[in-house]
Amino acid sequence: GEIENLKNKLSRSGTLGEVTPRGSDKEKHTQVEMLKGLNANLTQELKKAYVALKIAHSQLQSERKHSATLKKELDEQSSKEQTNSTTEQLQRLELENLQLREKISQLEDQNANLQSANDEIDIDDLNYLD
Questions:
Q1: CA distance 87 to 79
Q2: Where is the composition biased (Basic and acidic residues) (predicted)?
Q3: How far apart are the C-alpha atoms of 2 and 43, rounded to whole Å?
Q4: Residue-wise pLDDT tens digits, 65-79
Q5: How far apart are CA 58 and CA 52, in angstroms?
Q6: Are 19 and 30 in contact (CB under 8 A)?
Q7: Is residue 37 part of a domain?
Q8: What is the pTM of this model?
């Protein structure tokens, strides 16, 4: 799969190209075997790194989903709190409005009483003030 593709790319770029060891055939054979072992080890490390990368990618996606869920919950909570705050404000204003209406009603009653008391004062009574 992807590991073979990586190996092909590396060998095309010359990184894992053919090695021509110097010295006797036995030394060459030993060097080739050593390089094959090194290549096998590197391939194993590459496979492990690839698996670790896949796991990390999966965890990242999971974290992103979790983060999106938390953000959505936070937005909903914030919206609820705003609604609750607005509702409380509205209730306070309605109560204030009711209290003001009662006060207006009392003042209108007082005004009516003063008006009728005023009407009873005779014009002649006012003349004596002069």
A1: 12
A2: 62-79
A3: 12
A4: 999 999 999 999 999
A5: 10
A6: no
A7: yes
A8: 0.43
